Every structure is written in structure tokens, then in C-alpha cells.
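[SOLVED] Need 3D model of a two-part complex

Original post:
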Amino acid sequence: MNAPSIVELRRVSRWYGNVVAVNDVTMTLGPGVTGLLGPNGAGKTTLLHMMAGFLAPSRGELTVCGQPAWRNPDVYRTLGLVADREAVHGFLTAWEFVLASARMHGLTQPEQAARRALAHMEMLDTQHRRLGTFSKGMRQRTRVAAALVHQPEVLILDEPFNGMDPRQRMHMMGLLHRMADEGATVLFSSHILEEVEQVSGTVQVIVAGRLAASGDYRTIRRLMTHRPHVFTIRSTDDRRLAVALMGQPAVAGVDVGPSGLTVRAGDYGAFARALPKIAVREGLRVQQVTPSDESLESVFAYLVAS
Amino acid sequence: MNGTVAAITTRALLGRRRFAVLLPLPLLLVGLAALAHSLEPDPVDWGEPIVVSLGFGAVLPLIALVIGTGVLGSEIDDGTILHILATPLRRRDIVLTKLAVAVGITAVASAVPMFLTGLITESARFGLGLAVACAVGSIAYCAVFIALSLLTRRPVLLGLLYLLIWEGVLGNLLSGSRLLSVRQYVVTIAADTTSSDLLNSRVSLPVAIVMSAVFLVGGTVLAVDRLRSFTLTGETT
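Solution:
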């Protein structure tokens, strides 16, 4: 059964004069963590601003939990936003900042909600310090706490790991996973591929304003049939295996190296089926098969290059 | 009115440096009135320039300009407005709260020195009339300047042009321009309230009252509409 669509974009475009920032994007997001990827200037922030209700689509329809995001403050009852601009009132303490958010959301027990959100972000020890004295990472965590205070169904974060130290990053990643496990829809943008890879298998890739790919990046890679899949293979006799593999139509090339074979296969499925049969026929034992270009970085590089 | 928005707005406003820069203006007004009074007790020669030109022409509108553009414009400039806007608060409530804070602070900051100036110049009744006029002027000016801060990225510059060119220059040359001059409404209301010979109104009282209300309602409606369409700009990364 398909997951319900919480955020829906139907043929959404946004242009500024003659410049098209987002071009005819159709996208649905359901519960779970999704990474929004794209090179600089691809239109990620424009897309996030539209989803967050702070930018009108020039064309198309965009809904969050079934309601339009633009000119509709009610959408923030179910939506939390951590924008790329990190400005906060420096004179407020973290507690005052998050409590103010709780009150502005009209929560019935704002103090309790603020305390819970600050605890989620491990900020109870520093909650009475002024935001002006915080590091960038701590300000970021406070803003996340404020965005979580009403326990939104949808959380949108623009570059949430900026300024965070490695420990804070790990904690933030854990938090996003927990929210997703609890049924929330989390969308975050990042220009650091390792971050996206660690947080989410599901990506939306924007290139030049268009949605270039959508889904699990490993599946996306397998669908790129025009690019040979690269595997690193180690066996009990690499040279004999190389000769046998070269006779397979699914194999486009084999390099023999000190650390094993590098095999380029045109057809992922046919190669995966053929390899064990070859090993049995040749009396070899395959010790290791590693797809070496199924990383998000490879997928992203292929998408951007194409 | 939203108490949380009002509290944050007030703290932000009073903490800004340019608000502190305004403090000398009311002091200058009261000081000059006191000095003139000590030199010449009869205010016929110096009363009008100090009360109308300095008080209604500079102190009130400049305080209103700094505060009116500060309650929303500064938060839009530095991005702190997102804290308030990313909540389900009605945009109308946000604007009305900001307007109430701006009017309250402007009225206090201008009406108190104007009352003292009136007291020194003529009488307590005269001072009270000036204070009432300041309160009305605060409402009209703040509504306009809040709307300006949502219509343009240069609200202070445009506000200054309105005060200097429209009210200062054209108001003295073209009688028609006085119909859209808050300063003229303020002077008329003060003249009517005090019945003093020092103040000469150039528009009628009904026009002053109706046009002040038009500025208030028009500015507020415009500001609410613009805030509903608040757009985040940023690097497209």
C-alpha cells in the first residue's frame, strides 16, 4: 500500500521575471525522512519556501496536509519550519524563544510543550541563556526546538546541520529518524551528500529547477541503465573470473587490480544472476562483491552530469 | 492583540540603537521651550515655531517614523519576523498588535514632551491639547509607516521623503496637498482642542478626523494584505 501524500506539488513552477527557478515540478512526500538535493542554484530553497507558505507558486498547485500553503497561516498548525535564515532575537533566552512559539501556536499547555521541545534538543541546561550568546549550532538547535514545539506532522528544514558539531549532527539525525518513525513527514535540504546519505535513503533531486529524480537513491541508480554499474569483486582466482566474466553479454569491461576486479556491468539484474553461476562453473569462491558506484554521491554526479 | 507578539515587539524596539538616538529630540523640544520662555515669557514670537515646526513638524513624525518602521520593518530586514510568521497567528492580529505597540510608544514618547512644552508655552490646557493631537497623529503616522515597511525595502527613506517633501515643502505651497498631510490634521486637532491663537489650522476639523481615520484604516488594511503575502527571499541554493 502506498504511503499517504502529505505534501503534494502538482506541476509547480516559480519564475522571477525571465528566470525560471522551479520548472514544472510534480512531487509527493509521505511520512518518513526525505532529502532534497541539488547543486547550488538548482531551486531547492525556492521549492522549500513554496512548501513552507512563504512564496507563491507562479503556476501549479501545492498543498500541505490537503490545504494550500500560500496565504494560509492555518497550515502552520501542522507544519514546522526551520528556514535557512538563522536570525533570532538575541535578547530572548532559549526558553523564552520556544515558549513564545508555543504560545503563538495557541497550545493549551505552552510551558510543558516548550520544556518537551527543549528536552528533545538536549537544551534544558542552557535554556536560560540568551540566544545572542549562543554558537551557531546552538541557535540552530533552539530554532529546531521552536519548530517542533507543536509536534508538527510536517517538518521542513533548510540546511539543518549548518553550524552543528559532529555530536550535534548525530543527535539531530537521530531526532529526524525518531520523528519519521512516529509518522511525521520530514523534508530537509543539504548540500553535503554524506549527511543526506546518513539520514535518508529517499531523495528528491533538483537540477536546474526540474525534478531530476525521486525515490530511493539506490533504486534510482539501478534504473540508470545507460550507465554501467561498477562492482569491486574479490575471489579465490581473480584472473580466471575476469576471463569468464568477459564472455558475459551483461559485462562491459573488467579491470584486474591488486585489490580485486573492477567490473562494469551494463545490466544490473543479468549480472547479479550470472555471477554465482559463473563462480560455480569455474569452481571459484567469490569472497566479496561491492557495488562501488551506488553511493548517493555517484547517483548525484550522474544526475547532474546528464 | 497578542500578548506574546506585543512583548517581543516592545523589547526588540526599545533595545534597538536607533530608538536611543531619538531621546535627545524630545529633550531638545522641552529645553528650547524652557529657554525661550525664560528669555521672553510671551510666546507670540517663538510659540508657533517651537510647537508646530519643531514639535509637530519634527519630533512627532520622526519618532513615529523610527518606531513605525521599526516594529515590522526591522524584523523583516533581519529575518526575525519568521519566528512570528511561522505560526497560525492571523496576520491581522499581528499587524494590529504591532500597530498598538508602535502607537503606544510613539504617543508616550511624543505626547509627554509636547505636554510639557505646552505647559511651559501657555498653560496645562494647551499642553493637554497638544498631547491629544500627538496621540491622534501617532495613530495615523504609525499606520502609514507600518504599511510602508511592508510595501518597500526602504521605508525610512520613503517616510522621510513624505515628511520633508510632501508635508514640509508641498504642504506650504499647494493647498491640495494638505488634505494628505498628517501634520495638518494634528495641528487642526490641537488648534480646536486648545483654542489657542498660536495654532492656525489649514484644514477643517471634520477633514482632520476623517482623514486620520482613513490613514489608519487604509494603512492597516494594506499592511495586513502585504503581510499575508509575505515572501521569503534568499539565495537559491
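Edit: Chain B has one domain: 3-228.
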